[in-house]
Write a structure and sequence with these properties.
The protein is mainly α and about 200 residues long. Helix content is about 80%, strand content about 0%. Helix 3 packs antiparallel against helix 5 and helix 5 runs antiparallel to helix 6. The two termini are about 35 Å apart.
Length: about 200
């Protein structure tokens, strides 16, 4: 569907899918740790992480549809009549509202995907060492999901006229983006498997 000429699903929905995969991989590492005698001391933690990961990947999968639906709302507003001044005002208001909804959907995706980082860090540090690569991939997918979703937020913010709204969201975007990049580097640094990331 993403490869078609349709406007949706687009980057926001794909970012949600990527985030869901990241959460699922983190969940997998936790599940591969549960029941292993070698990791007896972290069983309760891993069980909690597996449950949280399951809920989070479902949340992100739901974000695929929400992102597409929010953009479709904006597209419907574009088709409103604009023959009279009154129609133009109604259309402009609908477009601005549509843009806000199309901005908040990917922002929610980014915020959801950001929850993966502390969970993935836990499985990388204390989970099954045989699956550490999966935990690291979960981290990279989380960063891609966050930054990717935020690209959609940024492009929509450029067309929103509500300055206070834009200013508030720009601050949230900046923090989410910088935190995601920092978290990815910090967690990858925990493993020798990711040495090449820092040596190139």
């Amino acid at each position: 569907e993403a490869a078609s000429k349709a406007s949706v699903p687009g980057g926001g929905s794909v970012s949600a899918m990527v985030g869901a995969l990241g959460a699922a991989l983190m969940e997998m590492v936790a599940n591969l740790t549960i029941g292993k005698e070698k990791y007896a001391g972290v069983q309760a933690e891993m069980q909690a992480l597996a449950a949280e990961g399951a809920a989070l990947h479902e949340e992100l999968l739901a974000g695929i549809k929400k992102d597409s639906e929010s953009f479709n709302g904006y597209m419907r507003a574009l088709k409103l009549p604009k023959g009279t001044e009154e129609e133009k005002k109604i259309r402009t208001a609908a477009l601005q509202q549509g843009l806000k909804e199309a901005t908040e959907a990917p922002l929610a995706i980014a915020e959801s995907a950001a929850k993966i980082f502390p969970m993935a860090e836990a499985v990388v540090k204390r989970g099954n060492k045989g699956a550490v690569s999966d935990g690291l991939i979960a981290v990279m997918l989380a960063r891609t999901a966050v930054v990717g979703a935020l690209f959609n937020v940024k492009i929509n913010l450029a067309s929103i006229k509500d300055e206070s709204y834009v200013s508030e969201l720009e601050k949230r975007v900046e923090k989410l983006e910088s935190d995601a990049i920092f978290c990815e580097k910090s967690i990858l640094y925990l493993s020798k498997l990711s040495d090449t990331v820092y040596n190139r």
